[in-house]
Specification:
By secondary structure, this protein is an all-alpha fold. 72% of the residues lie in helices and 0% in strands.
Length: 92
């Protein structure tokens, strides 16, 4: 009886082979999430630098020099369209 149970267990294990595509999809998903995080970090870093520049440009000594020399304010990076804010859909 034990031998029959062991045979069924091995047959069940062989019926579900290791899927290589599952690992590839997992890697792709992790890479997409990582890329989205890097883009968000770069956008935040740009906005921080722009805010620092705008604040420094409006400070007292720099304000006297920045205007006449043509140093204008820098616009923050914002996504205007709602579709651009959504993550792209990947269909396999």
């Amino acid at each position: 009886m034990l031998e029959g149970s062991l045979g069924r267990l091995l047959a069940t294990a062989e019926a579900y082979p290791e899927l290589k595509a599952d690992a590839n999809l997992r890697e792709l998903s992790e890479e997409l999430a990582s890329t989205e995080n890097r883009v968000a970090f770069a956008r935040q870093a740009f906005n921080d630098a722009a805010m620092h520049y705008n604040t420094a440009r409006e400070s007292f000594p720099q304000a006297l020099i920045a205007g006449p020399l043509g140093f204008g304010p820098v616009a923050m990076l914002e996504l205007q369209q709602g579709a651009a804010r959504q993550a792209p859909t990947v269909q396999l």
